[in-house]
Specification:
With 353 residues, the chain is an alpha+beta fold. Helices cover 44% and strands 16% of the residues. Helix 2 crosses helix 11 and helix 8 crosses helix 9.
């Protein structure tokens, strides 16, 4: 493994490229595997000594895998500046819970930030693969390779009947949670989201905001994931999510066409007003910014806007956030100054397109 300063503070994660299968609707795909180590108390009840032993065990395991681990770096979170920890959250590489937790925690990252492993979050290990667009099969394959690498050196807590043992019962079995981050402005603007969410819940899917449980669905962005992993294989979970994602993609595209075939001037006006604000405003908070960026992305996808400014959407939705913005600018800012610099940053980025 590699040592050194945290390089992720200003880099782009691969999923932020804005490209990938069905990327007009699906921003990113995530596969997460929950694993715990045999012989250690699970994180919700573990003491500091146990947490430190888990981090040490994982570090030793990675160091002993030789060339297979050369592309990965392990960072104890206590050695990362707090602002950079929140950059990781904003890039969806770790959860807010990990950063807010008072204990011995860590993260493993690969060079392109496709693979991340949270250490001592709700489980000892949360292995994650994050790719742009709809790529559930590829994400599972890459997550499984990392899982195999760790399993070759670490004893997992595994039960013959219940599968992988996890802190939360809903993760028993495969320990797998798949999700897609989707941009659904068409369904929101046509008033279909409430009934759609009800239907998704009935078929065992979970709908959340972009930063997980308890977060708001800002910018018409939603995370759709499987509810439970016990009783289903990894391939079955992936197949079910593919089916749900394709249904959502079809409905969203139909809703967008309905917007164009209805009052076209209304949707064009909303898009151009949003673009005008983003390219001329001198002060903007993050909530307003993500809503306007969502409309500009929609306008780009519908060819209302002649330039491909929508391609910058995944990057901007991260870099205009509190911690990432300060890191990109290289200075600490109070709330008022952040609003000014956010507007300037977005304005320049869009004008560059």
């Amino acid at each position: 493994m590699k040592d050194g300063a945290a390089p992720f503070a200003t880099t782009l994660s691969s999923w932020m490229s804005g490209h990938g299968p069905s990327s007009d609707v699906v921003i990113s795909t995530r596969i997460r595997l929950a694993r715990n180590l045999r012989g250690f108390l699970f994180p919700p009840v573990a003491d500091r000594e146990t947490e430190e032993a888990v981090v040490a065990s994982v570090g030793e395991a990675m160091s002993s895998t030789g060339p297979a681990a050369m592309d990965y770096s392990l960072y104890p979170l206590r050695e990362i500046e707090q602002i950079d920890q929140w950059v990781l959250v904003e890039k969806h590489l770790v959860s807010p819970h990990l950063v807010e937790k008072d204990g011995c925690t860590g993260i493993i990252l690969d060079e392109d930030e496709v693979i991340s492993v949270m250490i001592n979050e709700e489980d000892h290990l949360r292995i994650q693969c994050l790719l742009p667009g709809l790529e559930l099969t590829s994400a599972l394959e890459r997550a499984d390779r990392m899982d195999d690498l760790l399993a070759s050196k670490l004893p997992y807590a595994l039960h013959k009947r219940y599968g992988y043992l996890t802190a939360c019962p809903s993760n028993l079995g495969t320990g797998m949670r798949g999700s897609v981050m989707v941009h659904l402005p068409g369904l929101v603007l046509t008033g279909q989201m409430e009934s759609l969410m009800s239907g998704l819940n009935k078929v065992g899917a979970v709908v959340r905001g972009v930063y997980g449980e308890g977060s708001d669905a800002q910018g018409n962005l939603f995370q759709i994931s499987n509810r439970a992993s016990l009783g289903s294989s990894e391939s079955e979970i992936v197949d079910n999510l593919y089916a749900l994602a394709r249904e959502l993609i079809g409905r969203e595209r139909s809703a967008r066409e309905a917007l164009l075939s209805g009052d076209r001037y209304e949707i064009e006006d909303r898009v151009y007003r949003s673009y005008g604000l983003l390219t001329h405003a001198r002060k903007m908070d993050s909530s307003e910014a993500i809503g306007l960026l969502s409309m500009v992305r929609l306008g780009s996808d519908l060819n209302i806007l002649s330039t491909r400014v929508g391609d910058a959407f995944p990057e901007l939705m991260v870099r205009m956030r509190r911690a990432s913005l300060q890191r990109v600018l290289g200075e600490r800012l109070d709330a008022g100054d952040r609003d000014v610099e956010r507007a300037s940053f977005i304005r320049k980025r869009l004008q560059a397109h």
